[in-house]
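Morning. Coffee machine broken again, so started the prediction first thing and wrote up yesterday's gels while waiting. Chain of 330 residues, entered below exactly as on the submission form.
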Amino acid sequence: MTKSLVTGATGFLGSAVMRCLLAAGHEVRVLVRPASDRRNLENFSVEIVEGDLRNRQSLKAAIRGCDNLFHVAADYRLWVPDPATMYEINVNGTHDLILAAHEGGIQRIVYTSSVATLGLNADGSPANEDTPSDSARILGHYKRSKYQAEQLVKQLTDDHHLPLVIVNPSTPIGPNDVRPTPTGRIVLDTLMGRMPAYVNTGLNIAHVDDIAHGHLLALQHGKPGERYILGGDNMTLLEILQAIDDINGTRRNRFSIPINIMLPMAWLMEKTATFTRTEPRATLDSIHMAKKLMFFSSAKAQRELGYRYRPAVAALEDAVKWFKDNSYCN
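Came back before lunch.
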């Protein structure tokens, strides 16, 4: 039986990858920090190994005896009080894990990057894997750390001829978003009536389980050294909010806020967060990012991996149902 190590399995996307691999008949080992919330692991037959991306010895132990590595874990926050920690995890931790996998004889590696590392088209048309990105224009520590990590992974792959495939998920939506993620908070805030306004931006929405299955397809059919966008439907933020309203049966009237007006509000939220130590609902970087439509195409993954995705509304329906069933809306 194939044995796969999954990092980030306590999180939203990582847990979906774990479930997909189990359904495909893999034996699954998960690398988990000692203090992690383990609700997404409950009732699943997986081998739990405690460790940390900042502890090289724990990574070597976790790799031992595995055939494949799915490195999904990342520090995914739009604001952090100490950015250094994010770079330690997303960049240095990735470097150490990939080298440990190479030294441990791992047969195949799927590295989960992000569409945050890709360029965007000024005209709003969907970007692809070849759309040029300008590292100087990448905003926010999360995006910068993922960009640096992907560049590092590409270099390691070339230097060591690694059997490594990169996947670039867009915006996953669906069940088991226990934290929830920043995008999950948009869904939840909409359900709770906390989204009376919107900015003119757009996202690529995909069901988390479809993105997870894309990881398995990357393992089976991906070409080493290549990267593949795993996405879904492109939607404006207003379309997303209205779709959630329709699912919830509570259509609301909303007004558009110019992005420049949002900037001082985001600045105030960030300043407040430095005292409360809680993640703000909007940041200066996130507002600047919203100036462009973050639309992407999954055509390469569809063509080369056989990737398929369901309509975005199905992802939103599953997310709404899960948040309601798990008392997030009380």
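The longest helix spans residues 83-103. Going to sketch it on the whiteboard this afternoon.
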